[in-house]
Amino acid sequence: MISRLLARLPFIKKTSWAERHFIGVLVIGSLVAATMSLLIGLHQSVWFDEAYSILLAKQPLDRLVYLASVDTHPPLYYILLKGWAALFGWGELALRSLSVLAMSAAVIFAGLFVRRTFGARVALVALPFVVFAPFILRYGFEIRMYALASLIGIAATYVLVRAMQATGKKQWLLYGLYAVLVAAGVYTLYYLALLWIAHFVWLISMSLKTKRSIIKSRWLLAYVGSVVLFLPWLPTFLAQVNNGALAAISQPLTLINLLGIVSFNFVYQPAWQLGAVVSLLVVFVIVAVTYFAVKAYKTVSAAQRPYLVLLAAYLAVPVAVLTLVSLNRPMYVERYLAHIAIGGMLFVGVTIALAINKKSFRQAKKMWIIAGLLFATLLVGTVHLAQVGNYNFQRMQTPTIEQTAAAIAPCDDQTSVVAADPYVAIELMYYLPDCQIYFYSETVALGGGYAPLSNSPLHVTNPVGSIGAADTLFYIYYGEPKLVLPTDFRSVSQQSFEALHIQKFSAE
């Protein structure tokens, strides 16, 4: 009786368990994701893309910006990595921690976004589908810009929603912050523009629905502001579009690759690698997510429905745009879409929460079982990620440069290392910073990701010419040996670490 009377008093606010414990559970969830990602990451060898990030971050700032300008990606992440390493060092734990921290913060913003739009209970139901998503965990430890792009993307989405709900000066401030995040996103990863297109499409649909002027909208001014902030880099971006640095790794977004987006996010396997059993799991995922999406759309309130559409657009619009672009130019690389995975997994979790809608297990037994199986599929993917690590699906290789370098180190004045090409040389540089690493290339002037080695004095021709006064030589290569080494050296041993091989030579 007393508790009922107190609950009616205007200064007593009755809150649910989810609301009272939301922040604590959210922080725990982000820490769980960070711990899993970091533990997996610290068992992986740094590979070319990561070694390239480190190599750029070690350059003077002006050269860093120049090298980024002749490659594929913008410079902001490399600049942040440089500052981070200046504070915490160049060890793998420190370097991977920057990405892990960004991923952990992205989980926090994801939870805050869902709580604001759908409530604390829905947010807590959705949280595990982000925390245990293998694709998010995979690029949470990568020494690249993908985790930072995920953070900027979800943070901007949260700020945008808050701006739309605000009024007066606060709204102007939030739209200003949104403009900065949009610009920072494109300075981090160009593919984040696909998410900004999704936001733009959603904002137009909201304006049309409410019959508000698009031209006079404050969000349009925010986009104008973001474009102004990006203008200094625009000429460089336009030059990068056709500089050929993307090489041959990009693919069209075919039906197989569309299916691969699902398989990567749930079982961390490309579609072409799926066996019969795992293929059935992926089909189950597609059917189950569609089932929950339909149920959720029918049961969600009119006020919340636009935010459900926003989450759907988070994944669907970038994929649709990239599919259309692929008709003219192949642009799909699975990791370039890592930043939209968080929106996709939020959509899965939110639709499950909305479809079940406080129903007990007895009331919605079928839906609870399907949701449990979906989550179990995610756990299968997380286990698979821990097993395969940072496997390179473009080169079909497990990175083993750390083990290879350990077989060579330490270097001294009597030891020389010859890499078969610039790719191998850059991979070796992180683990063998004190070695002189010679490399072969058909051209002296190099571009793209090899630009840091352009016109290097360590460039050698075939057959290999002068390599100093060394009496021990290590030749490192993928595939088959192609270089002709000096005749005064004889092969004394050979080792292989997966696809990477070492031949040791000694001066006669």
What shape does the CA trace take? globular
Helix content: 55-70%
Radius of gyration: 26 Å
Question: Distance between the terminal alpha carbons, to the nearest Å?
Answer: 98 Å
Mean pLDDT: 92
- Taken as a percent bin, the fraction of beta residues is 5-15%
Largest sheet: 6 strands, mixed
Spatial strand order of the main sheet: 3-2-1-4-6-5
The sequence of SSEs as H and E is: HHHHHHHHHHHHHHHHHHHEHEEEEE
DSSP strand count? 6
Structural class given helices, strands, pairing? alpha/beta
Residue stretches low in confidence (pLDDT < 50, at least 5 long) are none
Helix count from the secondary structure assignment: 20
Quick overview:
The chain is an alpha/beta fold. It is 60% helix and 7% strand.
What does this entry look like structurally?
There is one protein chain. By secondary structure, the chain is an alpha/beta fold. The chain has 20 helices and 6 strands. It has helices at 2-8, 17-41, 48-57, 61-69, 76-88, 92-118, 120-131, 134-138, 146-165, 168-188, 192-210, 218-230, 234-241, 255-267, 276-299, 305-326, 341-356, 365-388, 401-408, 422-431; strands spanning 415-419, 437-440, 459-460, 472-478, 489-497, 500-507. A 6-stranded mixed β-sheet has the order 3-2-1-4-6-5. Helix 20 (422-431) links the parallel strand 1 and strand 2 (437-440). The radius of gyration is 26 Å and the shape is globular. The termini are far apart. The model has no long low-confidence stretch (mean pLDDT 92).
